[in-house]
Design goal:
The protein has six helices and three strands. By secondary structure, the protein is of the alpha+beta class. The protein has one domain: Winged helix-like DNA-binding domain superfamily/Winged helix DNA-binding domain (Arc Repressor Mutant, subunit A). A three-stranded antiparallel β-sheet has the order 1-3-2. Helix 1 packs antiparallel against helix 4 and helix 2 packs across helix 4. It comes from Litoreibacter ponti. This is ArsR family transcriptional regulator. InterPro entries: ArsR-like_HTH (IPR011991), HTH_ArsR_DNA-bd_dom (IPR001845), WH-like_DNA-bd_sf (IPR036388), WH_DNA-bd_sf (IPR036390). GO terms for molecular function: DNA-binding transcription factor activity.
Length: about 110
Amino acid sequence: MSPAVQATFRALADPTRREILQTLTAGPRTIAQVAGDFDMTRAAVKKHLTVLSDGGLITVTPRGRERINQLNPEGFAPVFDWLGFFDQVWDSRLDALKSAIEKDQDHD
């Protein structure tokens, strides 16, 4: 697994970070705005946002003294690609199941 995929999965592994991602679907937010949705300090929120940024799931844009955090949908691509590898496993198993069911129906 590539380091980019590992960083993305690390970012997604924490339930708080997943909740932060959900809040960012409403639009860009400052650290203070994100912190307002959670029972934790701004410093703790900033650490979570850093992990999300390192995982490529958000972009952070400085605006004066603030940092604007925004969801980066393209950041999920490594996860989809990694999971996509397993589609072939499921496809072959489902094809085998379909064949077995059809064979069983033919014998009835």
